[in-house]
Amino acid sequence: MIAALLLIVAWTLVGAVVGVGVRIASVWLARGEELEPGRKPWQRYGPVILTAVLFGAFAWRIGPSWVLLIRSLWVAVLVQIIFFDLEHLLVLDRVLLPSAVAAILLSLVTPGLGILPAVLTGLVTGLVFLAIAELGALVFKAEAMGYGDVKLAAFLGLLLGPRPTFNAVVLGVILAGVVAVGLLVFRVRKMRDSISYGPFLAAGALASLFMVSGG
Fold first, then answer.
1. pTM
2. Does the structure show a pLDDT above 80 at 7?
3. Lower CB count within 10 Å: N or C terminus of the chain?
4. What pLDDT, on a 0 to 100 scale, did the predictor assign at position 191?
5. How far does CA 198 lie from the centroid of its chain?
C-alpha cells in the first residue's frame, strides 16, 4: 500500500516535470510556425497540471510496469495535442509523424495490440475521417473537418488498435457535440462555424487508454 502510494506521488511529480517540457516544446513549436504563444494561465499551467494528474492516475491504474512508461509517453503527446490545438487550432505534423512512427514500433511490445492491428486500424480510421472531411466540405461548401484531425484520427488508430479506437472516437464525437451545442446555446459560435475535433479526439483517446491501461 505504501509502495503504491509512493509510486503515485513520485510519478505525479514526474508528470509535472514532463508537463513543463510539454509546454516548453509547444512554445518552441508555435514560434517555429510563426505563431505567438499564449500567456493565459490555462495555456501556461494547463499542460503541467493535466500531465501531472494523468501520470498519477495511470500510475494508480497500472502500477510499476514498463507499460506505464509507454502509456505515459502517449499521455504527454496527447496533452500537447490538446492544448496546442485549443490555443492555435493546429495539429502539427512535426508532432504526429514521429509519434506515429513510435506508435508503430511500440505496437510490437504493447499488450493486446500488435503491429498489424495497429497499422490496419490507423489506415481505416484515417480513411473514414478523410471521407467525412471531404463529404462535409462537399455538402456544406466549407471545411467541415481539418486534415489535422484526419491525421490525428489515423495516429489514434496506430496507438490504440481497433476497439479502443472506436471507443475513443465515439467519446470524442460526443464531447465535441456537447461542447458545440453549448457554444451555440451561449452564442459563442454560429451554426455554420466549424469546430476543431482534435482536443476531443485526444481526450477520448486518453480515456480509452486509461480503460485499457492495465492491458
1. 0.91
2. yes
3. N
4. 47
5. 7
- Contact at 8 Å (CB) between 157 and 121? yes
**Residue 140 in contact with residue 79, Cβ under 8 Å?**
no
Kindly list the domain boundaries of the chain, sorted by start residue: 1-90, 94-215
Write the pLDDT tens digit of every residue in 99-154: 999 999 999 999 889 999 999 999 999 999 999 888 866 766 666 677 889 999 99
* C-alpha closest to that of 149 among 176, 126, 120, 121: 126
3-state secondary structure the chain: CHHHHHHHHHHHHHHHHHHHHHHHHHHHHHHHCCCCCCCCHHHHHHHHHHHHHHHHHHHHHHCCCHHHHHHHHHHHHHHHHHHHHHHHCCCCHHHHHHHHHHHHHHCCCCCCCCHHHHHHHHHHHHHHHHHHHHHHHHHHCCCCCCHHHHHHHHHHHHHHCHHHHHHHHHHHHHHHHHHHHHHHHCCCCCCCCCCCCHHHHHHHHHHHHHHHCCC
Confidence band for 206, pLDDT divided at 50, 70 and 90 = very high
